[in-house]
């Protein structure tokens, strides 16, 4: 995992969090929540990879 990969994951996390803050449509809320779940899973896998090296 490179620094640019981590930057991308962090930027996507911020977009999802901002979306959840301002969303009014329940379908869009589900999408932002799912995006945040995917980002969280990816982030934790990256951390696990770094710590097991």
Output the radius of gyration.
13 Å
N-C termini distance: 12 Å
* Major sheet size, sense and barrel closure: none
Indicate the mean pLDDT.
88
- Residue fraction in strands: under 5%
Query: What is the H/E order?
Result: HH
What's the multimeric state?
A: single chain
Per the principal axes of the C-alpha atoms, what is the gross shape?
elongated
Uncertain regions: pLDDT < 50 for 5+ in a row? none
Q: How many β-strand stretches?
A: 0
- Helicity, as a percent range: over 70%
**How would you classify the helix and strand content by structural class?**
mainly alpha
Helical element count?
Answer: 2
Please describe the topology of this protein.
Blueprint: H1 3-22, H2 26-51
Describe this structure in words.
With 53 residues, the protein is mostly helical. Helix content is 87%, strand content 0%. It has helices at 3-22, 26-51. It starts with a helix and ends with a helix. The mean pLDDT is 88.
Relevant terms:
single chain, 53 residues, mainly alpha, 2 helices, elongated
Short recap of the structure:
The protein contains two helices and no strands. By secondary structure, it is an all-alpha fold.
